[in-house]
Design a protein that fits this description.
The complex is a heterodimer of chains A (317) and B (302).
Chain A lengths: L9 H7 L2 H9 L1 H28 L2 E2 L7 E2 L3 H8 L2 H33 L5 H14 L3 H10 L5 H8 L14 H11 L2 H12 L3 H9 L4 H28 L4 H6 L13 H11 L3 H29 L3 H4 L1
Antiparallel strand pairs in A: 1-2
Helix pairs in contact in A: 5-9, 5-10, 5-12, 5-14, 6-10, 10-12, 12-15, 14-15
Chain B lengths: L4 H10 L9 H32 L21 H7 L7 H32 L5 H13 L3 H13 L7 H4 L8 H12 L3 H9 L4 H12 L1 H17 L2 H6 L8 H11 L5 H33 L4
Classes of the chains: A mainly alpha (317), B mainly alpha (302).
Chain lengths: 317, 302
């Protein structure tokens, strides 16, 4: 995305603009006036807080007494002496690995169904998108908690076909999947992006493939998937980054404490508990920095692997 | 989802199969199967919302015991109980608080993000490349990395338990997605308009206000709607910064309602849930064209 920032050709501009005005524009006086709120935000609410949080991660700080330098102790405690920390890492990773592919698979499947639908396409698209707007609300999280409760709709449905799971919400092995399913329910956002991507695939590619005798499946694998791979990649990166930060549904479904048996204590929930309930701001800051680095590392790995499976049509030409 | 797999295959090919002289009967069957598949997905998708509405109207003894979706009789008292609010704070107050935060956030985002976007999209300055790259990078930044120091700053400023920490950051263009969205939109506007205005003697401020901003309206509307819905749904920031029940939003109140009441109060709880999402639903119906188009053209996340 960053490559799109290339300035317009200079020569074209120079002919249309008097020299003195071009000079003023290049010094950027007016630009910085427009950017003042953004720059203030970056400095005061992003860069400075990140630096402070890095410093705090090496201290013991409870918000009332001055921070006390403890070196790497927060980090060493976290990695070697805190089973709850590792539990939250495991829960979050399990959630990411289940929720992201599930959501993207549904989004892609429905987008493919919709892409060549003429009738009522706009209606379907809007209706499928609606959960993406409502899904982040407390109200919907509470509905999911009730649906997956003991004796709730899902339990009863499964029981009627002979599968007795009890309430997923109260089962330490299943509670995390309730949150994952709630995430998958909100497939509308990636679906809309997939749909936009599908519109970009040139029709003649399909015709050429069909002339070469490619069947539907073959066309899907050899034309649709490669042409769509940049969009898949875009969705994958964004969904992964977002999934690491899931909070509201986990909070609501677990009753705010990560239960049952800490099985839905997601990373962010534990971070909140350490920082704002137990007042260990230093420890929570260290957790925040590890999260930041972990998300950065995962994104980097995704970008690295993307070279082997993401196909950019304009590069090959 | 397994049932849709055959349809997926056909969808990949069907797109252009019209030119392939397909047997029209087969195409018709495929189209009907596809619509059946789409409707099935739709029913599963909307069930939780229908369930919510139905449960909010159920009498207390039917909420958890009866599997029937529809209540035996409609229990309006759930709504009258919900309207009383929580901890002596009326629901109108809670809704008004949520509205105040959401509207403040909308104004902040639209003003600050369009200003920054204009600079990135139209003005030339030495640091533009690096700054734009940085702006994109902050889109990926997890909120938690800055959360604690931000809390400490707002605490030092005496702003904890006020709405400032929820609204002020929006006036500083901290939501980079919207800057990006508006930049993308402004880049699509013909530069000749700027040039013409410049030749007529307009400075960058005049061009921004009189030429570019009016044309950017669709992107600004998308920004406003998303900001409203996200602020309305927000829970985490409100949970951290607000303590006084008088200042609670509908989301926080709903959460506390769950804590304070037993399962017998399920009906009123879901009545309150319905009330809490009514503004989003209204927004959705009024502006869904902008929402879905905005998502599609910008590649933005919801």
């Amino acid at each position: 995305m960053t490559t799109t920032a290339t300035p317009p050709p200079r020569t074209a501009r120079a002919t249309a603009t008097p020299p003195e005005q071009r000079k003023r524009g290049q010094r950027g006086g007016p630009a910085y006036i427009f950017l003042t709120p953004w720059i203030l935000g970056v400095v005061l609410l992003t860069l400075a807080p990140m630096a402070v949080s890095l410093y705090l991660s090496f201290t013991d700080y409870n918000l009332f007494d001055p921070p006390k330098w403890v070196g790497l102790r927060n980090y060493s405690d976290m990695f070697t002496a805190d089973p709850r920390y590792w539990r939250s890492v495991g829960t979050t990773l399990l959630y990411v690995v289940v929720a992201v592919p599930l959501k993207l698979a549904i989004a892609l499947g429905v987008a493919l169904l919709l892409s060549n639908t003429r009738k009522a396409k706009g209606f379907y698209r809007s209706a499928f998108y609606a959960p993406s707007l409502l899904g982040a609300s407390m109200a919907v999280a509470l509905v999911w908690r009730a649906l997956y409760n003991d004796g709730g709709t899902v339990d009863e449905l499964l029981s009627s076909i002979g599968i007795h799971t009890g309430g997923w919400v109260s089962d330490p092995h299943l509670a995390v999947f309730v949150v994952a399913l709630l995430s998958a329910w909100q497939f509308g956002a990636p679906m809309v992006i997939f749909l936009a991507g599908l519109q970009q695939i040139p029709a003649d590619l399909y015709e050429a493939a069909a002339l070469d005798g490619a069947g539907r499946w073959r066309r899907f694998v050899s034309v649709t998937l490669p042409m769509l791979s940049p969009v898949v990649f875009f969705n994958l990166v964004l969904e992964t980054i977002q999934s690491f930060q899931v909070f509201t549904p986990a909070f609501a479904i677990s009753g705010g404490n990560g239960g049952p048996a800490d099985s839905t204590e997601f990373y962010t929930l534990y971070l909140y508990e350490r920082g704002f309930t137990a007042s260990h701001m230093g420890y929570a800051s260290a957790m925040a920095w590890v999260l930041l680095l972990a998300i950065g590392a995962v994104t980097l790995v995704l970008f690295r692997t993307s070279r082997s499976w993401v196909f950019y049509a304009n590069e090959g030409a | 989802m397994a049932t849709t797999v055959p349809d997926v295959k056909s969808a990949a090919g069907l797109k252009n199969s019209s030119g392939l002289k397909n047997n029209s009967g087969r195409t018709r069957t495929a189209a009907i199967a596809k619509h059946l598949g789409l409707v099935a997905v739709l029913l599963v998708l909307l069930y939780p919302l229908v369930w919510l509405l139905a449960t909010s109207l159920k009498p207390a003894n039917e909420v958890l015991t009866s599997l029937k979706l529809l209540p035996s009789h409609i229990e309006w008292s759930n709504y009258t109980t919900a309207l009383d609010g929580i901890s002596g704070v009326s629901i109108s107050r809670l809704l008004l608080n949520s509205l105040l935060i959401s509207v403040g956030s909308v104004i902040g985002n639209v003003v600050s993000c369009s200003l920054a976007a204009y600079a990135f999209a139209r003005l030339r300055f030495r640091m533009r490349g690096p700054m734009f790259g940085f702006m994109i990078a902050t889109m990926m930044l997890p909120h938690h990395a800055v959360l604690i120091p931000q809390y400490i700053i707002f605490n030092k400023l005496g702003m904890v338990d006020t709405y400032w920490p929820l609204i002020l950051p929006k006036f500083l263009a901290t939501e980079a997605f919207f800057v990006f969205l508006i930049v993308q939109f402004m880049r699509g506007l013909p530069r000749e308009l700027d040039e013409a205005a410049r030749i007529d003697g307009c400075g960058p401020f005049r061009i921004f206000w009189s030429v570019v901003l009016p044309l950017t309206r669709p992107a600004l509307i998308t920004t406003a709607i998303f900001t409203f819905i996200w602020s309305w749904n927000d829970f985490f920031t409100q949970l951290i910064y607000l303590f006084d029940p008088e200042k609670f939003t509908i989301t926080l109140a709903l959460r506390n309602f769950v804590d304070q009441s037993s399962t017998s109060a399920y009906g009123p709880m879901f009545a309150m849930s319905v009330i809490s999402i009514v503004p989003i639903v209204l927004f959705f119906f009024a502006f869904q064209r902008y929402l879905v188009e905005g998502m599609a053209t910008s590649g933005l996340k919801g």
